[in-house]
Amino acid sequence: MAVTRSGGFAGLVRRAEVDSADHPTVAGLIGDVRLDDVPEPRPQPDRYVYDIEIGDHSAQVGEADLHGPLRELVDHVMTLGG
User: Fold this and answer.
1) If we measure between CA atoms, which residue out of 59, 70, 73 comes closest to residue 27?
2) Bridge partners (DSSP) listed for residue 62
3) Rounded distance between C-alpha atoms, residue 43 and residue 75, angstroms
4) What is the spatial distance between Cα 80 and Cα 43, in angstroms, rounded to a whole number?
5) Minimal CA–CA distance to 3: which of 64, 80, 69, 65?
6) CA-to-CA distance for 59 and 61, rounded, in angstroms?
7) pTM to 2 decimals?
C-alpha cells in the first residue's frame, strides 16, 4: 500500500510505501478502512491532500477528513515507509 502526501504551506510531495505482509498493524488497519466511503476532498489552502492506494483501490482525502482508522493507517505508512 502507498500514501502520497502533497500540498501544505510549502507544497512538498512525500510518498511512502509498505508491504502489509511485513507489518501486521498496517494489515489490520487496512481491514478497517473503506476507501469507497471517503468523501471527496475539499480544496483548502495550506492543507495536505493524501492519495491513498490499497491494492487496486485508491482515494484522495483532504487532511481535514482524515479520521479514525484511516488516519492511523496513513500515520503508520508515512512513518514506516518514508
Assistant:
1) 73
2) 49
3) 21
4) 28
5) 80
6) 6
7) 0.90
For the chain, give the secondary structure using H, E and C: CEEEEEECCCCCCEEEECCHHHCHHHHHHHHHCCHHHCCCCCCCCCCEEEEEEECCEEEEEEHHHCCHHHHHHHHHHHHHCC
Across 70-74, average pLDDT: 96
Amino acid at 43: P
Q: How crowded is residue 56: how many other Cβ atoms within 10 Å of its Cβ?
A: 5
Task: State residue 15 phi and psi, 5-degree precision.
Answer: -120, 140
- pLDDT tens digit sequence for 6-39: 998 888 999 999 999 999 999 999 999 989 888 8
d(CA 44, CA 26): 28
